[in-house]
Amino acid sequence: MMELRQLRYFVAIAEHGTFSKAASKVHIAQSALSHQLAQLEEELGAALFLRSRRGVTLTEAGALFHVHALSILRQVADAQASVSSLLKAPSGRVIFGLPHSVSHALALPLIAAVRQSLPMVNLELTEELTGNLTQQLQAGSLHLSILFDDGQLDDFLSEVLVSERMSLIYPTTDKARRGKTSVSFKEALSQPLILPAQPHGVRPIIEDAALKAGLQPPNVLADISSISILRNSLLAGMGQTILPVMPLKAEIESGLLSSLPIRSPEVTRRVALCRARHIPLSTAAQAVSEVAKRVMKELCQKKIWVDATFIG
Fold first, then answer.
1. Cβ atoms within 10 Å of 115's Cβ, excluding its own
2. Rounded to whole angstroms, what are the CA distances from 162 to 25, 67, 76, 150, 296?
3. Mean pLDDT across the stretch 68-75?
4. What number of helices (H) and strands (E) belong to the chain?
5. What is the pTM of this model?
6. Across the strands, what pairs with 127?
7. Per residue in 137-160, pLDDT tens?
8. pLDDT value for 199
9. CATH number for the 4-79 domain, one of 1.10.3720.10, 1.10.10.10, 3.40.366.10, 3.30.70.270?
10. Collapsing DSSP states into helix, strand and coil, what is residue 219?
11. pLDDT, average across residues 179-195
C-alpha cells in the first residue's frame, strides 16, 4: 500500500537529483531511501528514475507521477493548515497562477494586499501561458489561477470578474492612423498581426469574435506567446497586435507604441478567477481568493487597470 512518506521520498529524490542529498533532506539512511523507492516502483509497475554516475533523472513515468505526487502532498498540507487555522488567522502556502498579459495589472497589487491582510499566508505567484496554467490547475499544482473566459472553463469552478476592452496596438512610427480615435474590428484583423499561438492568451477569443462577426480570421504574421518578445517585435516595427493596453501600458504612455480601441464590434476579453472542481480550497487559498476579488474590483474602479470594468 502506497504511503505518504514514499511520496515525500520520491519528491525529494526528484528535486535533489541524488539519493545521498535526498536522504539527508528527509533524514533517513540512503539504503532505507532506496528500499522505499524500490517498493514504490514495484507497486506502480514502472521505473521512476534513470540512474547514472552523475545522479538520477525522471523517466517519462516518473515525470507523470511527480505531478500527481506534488498535488497529493499539497492537498495534505492544505488539509493540515485548514484544520490548524480554524481558531486563528489563515496560514500556509498559496500558489496563484497569472497569465503574462494580466500580471502587469494584478501581480504587485495582489502581493501587497495579501501581505497586509493575510500576514501568515505565503503567496507564491507563477506567471505562465494560459494553456500551461489550465493544465497545472487541473493537476492540482495551483490553488487558484486567472484564466480567460473563452468558453472552455467548464472543468473549473470559475467566477468572471473583469471585462477588458481590446485595442489595436502598433508602432508610433506608423503615421497612417494619426487623428483616428478607434479602428474597426475588420480593419484590425487585416493588419499584419503578431499574436499568441493557439490555445494561449487572446488568440482563441479573437478568432471566435471574428467568426461570430462574419469576418475573415486574423492576418497572423507571427505566433509569439511571450509578452517580452511581443513587445520587442512591436518596437522593432515587425507588426501590430490585438491586446488590452495594460500589458504594454508603459510603452504606450512613453509614446513608443500607440493604441486604438476596436469598434464595430467592440472586442473584449473576460477575466475569470478559477480553481479546480475536484480539489477543495484550503482556508488560506479561500482567503487569498477573497482578497484577489477585492483587489481586482478596486483596480477597475480606480481606473488603475486601464480599459477594464469590474463585472463580478
1. 11
2. 44, 31, 32, 13, 8
3. 84
4. 11, 14
5. 0.74
6. 98
7. 988 889 999 999 988 888 899 999
8. 80
9. 1.10.10.10
10. coil
11. 94
